[in-house]
Amino acid sequence: MRNIVPILTDWRFRREDVGLPESFPEDWEPMTLPHTWNAVDGMAGGGYYRGVCWYARTFEAPVQPLPGGRVYLEFLGAGNEATVYVNGKEVCHHKGGYSAFRCDVTDALNGGANLLAVACNNAEKTGIYPQSADFTFYGGLYRAVNLISVPEAHFDLDYFGGPGVRVTPKRAVGGALFAATAFPKNVTEQYRVTYTVFDPENGEAVGFASRPALAPEVEIFVPDAKLWSIDAPHLYDVAVRLELANETVDEVTVSVGVRDFSVDPQKGFFLNGVSTPLRGVCRHQDRLYKGNALTEDDHFEDAALIKEIGANTVRLAHYQHAQEFYELCDTLGLVVWAEIPFISVFDPSPEAHENCVSQLTELIVQNYHHPSICFWGISNEILIGGISEQLVENHRALVSLAKELDPTRLTTLAHVSMTPTDGPMHTLTDVESYNIYFGWYGGRMEDNGPWLDAFHEKQPNVCLGVSEYGCEGILTYHSAHPACKDYSEEYQALYHEHMAQVFEDRPWIWATHVWNMFDFGSAVRDEGGVKGRNNKGLVTIDRNTKKDAFYVYQAFWSKEPMVHIAGKRYAERAGETTQIRVYSNAGFVRLTVNGQFFAKRRGHRVFVFDDVPLRPGLNQIVAEGDGVKDTAALTRVEQEPEHYTLPQVRAQQEGVKNWFTLVGDLDLKAPMSFPKGKWSVRDKVSDIAECPEAFAVLKKATLAMSGAELSPESGMWGFIKNQTVENMIAMGGGSMPEGFLESINAQLTEIDKP
Ligand code: GCU
């Protein structure tokens, strides 16, 4: 029989490329798996160690009772590239940091203790995805390693880390048909494959079939089969056995679910024939000072939080996640978008395409059985560097590969926001999604709905989803006047209030995924005064704090009665009155202030109470809806703490105030004009830069806007120079007051073009 032994303890580790050890390196650092060497520097900001590090361990060769058995090492995740040596001999090499792989080490073994050494490498390298992206590429053996031994006849272990069997359930009249096959190795006509379908709820066998191992394909009818759904995620275990006479030689069990689904461009997503708009979140897997070296409990906590918010879908971005996590989605009932890290930067080298092919093959072969997965994601924002014929062609090849490996699921991709609404990137995949960030990187949050409607009207046959949207929320910053790019918890919540409604009003959008459920490590970032992190999470990177925006979605999505008072961390407030926002799925919310009834409001998810009186010192606020209560303690102060505002935002607010005194009494209400021969905000930044007088206006304006003067020497110049002033202001100054753009235009139109 098959024997699987995890080897997690008694490793040795070196955080440098010391080369292959000749004997067990006692003096290296003792190590237990899972492990990454970037747990701290990967989320500290600035550089993090990217290169080769070494792991070593000894192991006894497992003994099979009969001759001819094989021994494998199985690695469930090694970032980003790994070379495995047994007793000094290279046994395998794997490219890609997120999928499992196995090496047949039988021929490298000796009788006693065997020396295993693994070189992991997360250095920048062409030919392996991800090339470049907004997250840290943690290096190391960050998932389990298993030692597997099998008899000579066994289910295949060599095919892209897959299980060696395949079971595809499908709904049928009066029950379900389980199409099953197996890939046995080294068998003769005496061998049989048997399939037993178990209902795990009561352990009963509900279906059985036996086939010759040389022709193992079969269909098993299970009468009255229960469906897998979001609210009742019913699973079946299928035990597949390889048998010889009265002996089981090898056995593999897979969990599957019976369900069907479809997407309609006008009606959205259907699960088992029921309209089910998918509303949920994206997940990055890493955690504070653990990086991606996670325990089962960590995965469970994440999945439980995603259920708690009331989501019915999760996009597992931007790479293959741990097996445990897909299993949790199966058992808890979440529809999954799974994807490969074909992201941000297109690498035209043939090896890079090969790497996409192997990562996609591994993703599908290794995760084929999860009923939670309905979508294979091909790429993310791959048009950032522009489009090419080769890029489109490679997409076509990946889509047909996905279809060949798995005709039962749909393919998808995540467009970068500036992807033109028509052109060759559309209808490549079965369904599509955009990452849209109006209200954060550019534009206003109110632009999202109209943009989606316009796309839908123009492309009525495209199934459109929103694969990412979000904004930063940092728990230090608070404001009574939240504005785009102020990083406050309040702006993040306000933005998501708006977005949740936009999507509730548009059930034809097949799926929407918040970016992101959790803050995550991104070494390249330095935003909002926090280095090395992306703070767009609804929950903090340590999973300890649910931001207010979390409760916005809970109010919109969850069926559990809930009431949440927002702004509890905005605890010190100036002024005699304040605004209280309450998120709830109740029809009415009552507010009590210091024991006195204040008001009762009818509402839909968001309940706003204005002019709530605060007495000096501490105030107790209680909100109640459908019998559920929440409470907040707010202190009225003379002056709100300075640290509530990010210094850069304070500088910007000051700058803007001064700007209006600087520009004097221009009529900012007058509609903008664009006279011929004069400069205006419709001109390109690089053209204006050629005229010193006009450029001076722009420099003053950007100084007011951001606290930094615009200059061709700045790092952002390449990004800005080809934009019009209008665009640049929209992108960089989401919170600019009314009249700001008009005032720049009024000054520019005073100046002649050469
Ligand atoms: C992108 C990208 C993410 C990134 C996010 C952001 O669209 O796909 O990987 O983290 O935007 O800027 O926060």
Report on the architecture of this protein.
The chain is an alpha+beta fold and 754 residues long. The chain folds into five domains: 3-150, Galactose-binding domain-like (Jelly Rolls); 165-256, Sandwich (Immunoglobulin-like); 263-470 and 511-518, Alpha-Beta Barrel (TIM Barrel); 572-642, Immunoglobulins (Immunoglobulin-like), CATH 2.60.40; 647-748, no CATH class. It has 13 helices and 40 strands. The strands form ten sheets. An eight-stranded parallel beta sheet has the order 29-28-27-26-25-24-23-30. The chain has a six-stranded antiparallel beta sheet with strand order 3-2-4-9-6-7, with no helix packed on it. The chain has a five-stranded mixed beta sheet with strand order 34-40-39-36-37, with no helix packed on it. Strand 15 and strand 16 form a beta hairpin. It is globular and about 95 Å long. 46% of the residues are buried. The protein binds alpha-D-glucopyranuronic acid. Alpha-D-glucopyranuronic acid binds next to loops.
Question: What would the keywords be for this entry?
Answer:
alpha+beta, 5 domains, TIM Barrel, Jelly Rolls, 20% helix, Immunoglobulin-like, globular, single chain, binds alpha-D-glucopyranuronic acid, 8-stranded parallel beta sheet, 754 residues, 6-stranded antiparallel beta sheet
